[in-house]
Amino acid sequence: MFYKDERLALFIDGSNLYAAAKSLGFDIDYKLLRQEFMRRGKLLRAFYYTALLENDDYSPIRPLVDWLNYNGFTMVTKPAKEFTDSMGRRKIKGNMDIELAVNAMELAPHVDHIVIFSGDGDFRPLVESLQRQGVRVSVVSTIKTQPPMIADELRRQADNFIELNDLKDVIGRPPREPRDDDSYEN
């Protein structure tokens, strides 16, 4: 699936990858993830996309964002929007699809292979466009959950589907015990 001389870029949909790994019962070790893909080709960029709650004194995602920023990842963040749904529940929305798509299109002329860590079917037209530009596209998500976390149309469009559960022994670590203030899952 990978060629040693291939120029690679990783595009990580943070909340989507977090949810997929959590559903499979493990956490991602991002240092190991980066090393794994450096081994598979010439890793030019590793982007990580997440929305951040700005009004919280402590965001559980903040230490990860800071660590990634200092350890070779290009962080793309924006403020999350907080709202109350019709049932009165506090909800957080922070969709990073457009940012990921724009960055992938900009980088396409400079890479041979793009790896998207997301199962979001909204990325199917992006994958198709990247392929028309001569870029191979792999998608990392899972079909091992009920329901599967990858949209069927995205899996069919990609050149390669990489089952996240198959990477568990390479890039995974046991989940940490959640603290009482870990209510935000992005």
Notable traits:
single chain, 186 residues, alpha/beta, Rossmann fold, six-stranded parallel β-sheet, 27% strand
Short account of what is shown:
This protein has 186 residues and is of the alpha/beta class. It is built from seven helices and ten strands. It has helices at 14-23, 30-40, 62-70, 97-107, 124-132, 152-157, 168-171, and strands spanning 7-13, 27-28, 42-52, 74-79, 81-84, 90-93, 113-117, 136-141, 160-163, 172-173.
What is the CATH architecture assignment?
Answer: 3-Layer(aba) Sandwich
Q: In this structure, how is the largest beta sheet organized?
A: 6 strands, parallel
How do the strands line up in the largest sheet?
4-3-1-7-8-9
CATH superfamily: 5'-nuclease
CATH class: Alpha Beta
Q: Helices and strands: which structural class? A: alpha/beta
CATH topology: Rossmann fold
Please estimate the helix content. 25-40%
Q: Output the number of helix runs.
A: 7
Number of domains: 1
Mean pLDDT: 90
Helix-strand pattern: EHEHEHEEEHEHEHEHE
Number of strands: 10
Question: What proportion of the residues form beta strands (DSSP E)?
Answer: 25-35%
Distance between the termini: 30 Å
Radius of gyration: 16 Å
Net shape: globular
Unreliable sequence segments = 181-186
